[in-house]
Amino acid sequence: MSSNKPPSDLTYSKYLKVDELISLQKPLTNPVAHDEMLFITIHQVYELWFKLILWELENTMENMNSGSLLASYRDLDRVCEIFRVLIQQIDILETMTPVDFNKFRSNLNPASGFQSGQFRELELLAGADISEYEKFFELEPEWKARLKARGAKPNLRTVFSNLLVKRGLMKDASRENLVEAIKKIYDDPKLLDLQTLCEYLIRFDEQISLWRFRHVQMVERMIGMRKGTGGSLGVPYLQSTLKKRFFPELWEARTHLGGTY
Ligand code: HEM
């Protein structure tokens, strides 16, 4: 008998570990501040989606490496759809007023989304520079090894660049070469497979930016100009992250595509 065979008494809750899952929401306030349950639930849901995004992006990179571009489109499409859901979820959080939030906010100190290891892993997997991540290692020491390992591996950006080298569109991945290669891709109808990949990658970059924007807008609505529980300046810090892009060359090339006017 195969060891993978599911037990015959399998049920919905056993398979999905529902009992464990719904026992994980533990408010710190006593008596419980009503909206703390919403706050915990929404963050946990985010972490589950982050886990799936990381899983899907690993697959995307494998597919890009092996030249299975059609499969990589499907992975990236799924990731972008998850992001759309992540952005929409902020609407649920905004049913909470600042007054209700402040009934439990002081209990959160010094914890913050700033310390989300999976979010940092996602940024590294997309192509962020590991040398800028020391500050996050200090905040969550247990994530240090995991993030260092992730930073040492190929990322979506390097896999994309290698693909363009393999396809003979550039010699190495300098910023200039990447912009030139992208222009060639858009100019040549025979490179439609790569053009489609570029469109998926720019959409991915765009979705992360939209999430950052929506998050900072919600944060201002919730805490105004107060500092973050993670110790940053709050809104001004988050606004400074809006410039982050994983594929700046895809954006830069846009200025030169399809004519001179
Ligand atoms: C009432 C709701 C929320 C407030 C007031 C809030 C506030 C903040 C603030 C002020 C920061 C800056 C770091 C700090 O000093 O703490 C931050 C960072 C962050 N938050 Fe939130 N947040 C909220 C909800 C969420 C949710 C639902 C998520 C989903 C996981 C999230 C994920 C993050 C992430 C990933 C960062 C780091 C961003 C970066 O460094 O680029 N936050 N948040």
Overall description:
The protein has 261 residues and is mostly helical. The chain has 13 helices and no strands. It has helices spanning 12-16, 18-21, 36-65, 69-93, 98-101, 117-126, 134-139, 144-152, 156-166, 175-187, 192-223, 235-240, 248-254. Helix 3 runs parallel beside helix 6 and helix 10 (175-187) crosses helix 13 (248-254). The longest helix has 32 residues, at 192-223. The protein starts with 11 loop residues before the first helix and ends in a 7-residue tail after the last helix. The mean pLDDT is 94. Protoporphyrin IX containing FE binds at residues 42-43, 46, 93, 101, 112-114, 116, 119, 215, 219, 222-223, 228-232, 234, 237-238, 241.
Largest sheet: number of strands, sense, barrel closure = none
Residue-averaged pLDDT: 94
Helix content: 55-70%
Share of β-strand residues: under 5%
How do the helices and strands follow one another from N- to C-terminus? HHHHHHHHHHHHH
**Strands, total number:** 0
Write out key terms for the chains shown.
single chain; 0% strand; 261 residues; globular; mainly alpha; 62% helix; binds protoporphyrin IX containing FE
